[in-house]
Amino acid sequence: MSESTTATTVLRAHAEDAYAAELGALEATDDRPRPPRWRLSPWAVTTYLLGGTLEDGTEITPKYLGSRRLVEVAVASLATDRALLLLGVPGTAKTWVSEHLAAAISGSSTLVVQGTAGTPEESLRYGWNYARLLAEGPTRAALVPSPVMRAMETGTLVRVEELTRIPADVQDALITILSEKHLPIPELDSEVQAQQGFNVIATANNRDKGVNDLSSALKRRFNTVVLPLPDSLEQEVEIVRSRVDSLGKSLELPPGLESLAEIERVVTIFRELRSGVTADQRTTVKSPSSTLSTAEAISVMTNGLSLAAHFGDGVVRADDVAAGLVGAIVKEPVQDRIVWQEYLETVVKDRSEWTDLYRACRELG
Question: Of 155, 223, 244, 276, whose CB is crowded by the most CB atoms within 10 A?
Fold first, then answer.
């Protein structure tokens, strides 16, 4: 299969591939100082994330809609010897930002450790090819480097996703790496020393079930940047619109969002249920157990786009988003269903322009 054919069949390209033209344009025009082994200067990295127009007229699309200062702090942290921790509730684009930071700084976002309850220490340090270990004994050839070790050797960024899902004793394997910038290999009486350009971007949240607190020693090794939920309805609607448009193209779904009306309704519902009060501050509502993040709003709208494309006339309407909306809100069958039914009857029903959405949700029971 040719490279071009492969590119067209990939469901979601890595950031450095999907935005290769923008990164190339920034690299060609970037004349500012760059830290060792950085592909772009800190200014260009920030421009790549937040968008802008270059001197040659190239448009850089925004990857993150939020505070410029937060992005600048994150980028500046990575230019020092301190690791970066992106902290926030689920759906605040932590993984998205970490991927694009790695793509812009190191040219690759693929050195990743995915944190889970079963992540072993070998994922952060190194493991062994046991066939070679038994045949040859402990040798460098029998050693299997982790993504962290490979990043240290090449002077690049490594991403540790969902750090707080990793057991606490495994998390602490990062302490020596982050403080001493070397990884001991006692079996070989050797070590790996981090090259210039090495650093770690970790993401974490403390809202979901199954998270583990970070030790004080590990927290001290990170500069923490808290990514907030979108400030305004308009900002969150734009985030959802741009991501749904991008996902729709990769899934080859015809464009069906002729207006922002359905997105605005879904985002409004999520924001009101998250905050516990309606937008006009007149009615208090209960909040469900689910986080109702921006990422979940994107999922609801993408599912609605698929329903409209395959089972409707291609235009997303209330009937198309209702099922996804209920599924995102009602995670606990009893408690959340009560919360949702009360919200339907006290808020949605009273909004005359939402009659179609009220009917569609009621028909789902």
Answer: 244
Q: How far apart are CA 86 and CA 75, in angstroms?
A: 11
Amino acid at 87: L
Kindly give, in sequence order, each residue whose CB lies less than 8 Å from that of residue 263, ignoring residues fewer than 6 positions away: 237, 240, 241, 244, 257, 297, 301
Distance between CA 161 and CA 98 in Å, rounded? 9
User: What kind and span of H or E run contains 52?
Assistant: strand 52-53
Two tokens, residue 86: 């992106």
297-307 tens-digit pLDDT: 999 999 998 89
Please say whether the beta carbons of 257 and 245 come within 8 A.
yes
The confidence band for 257, taking pLDDT boundaries of 50, 70 and 90, is low
Look at the pTM and tell me if it is higher than 0.85. yes
Among 81, 96, 85, residue whose Cα is nearest residue 171: 85
- Vertex 86 angle, CA 70 and 73, to 5°: 30
Helix (H) or strand (E) holding 28: helix 20-29
- Phi, psi (degrees; rounded to nearest 5) at 293: -80, 170
Percent of the chain with pLDDT over 90: 76
| 3-state helix/strand/coil string of 157-200 | EEEEECHHHCCHHHHCCHHHHHHHCEEEEHHHCEEEECCCCCEE
CA dihedral 94, 99, 100, 105 (to 10 degrees): 120
**What are residue 199's DSSP bridge partners?**
157
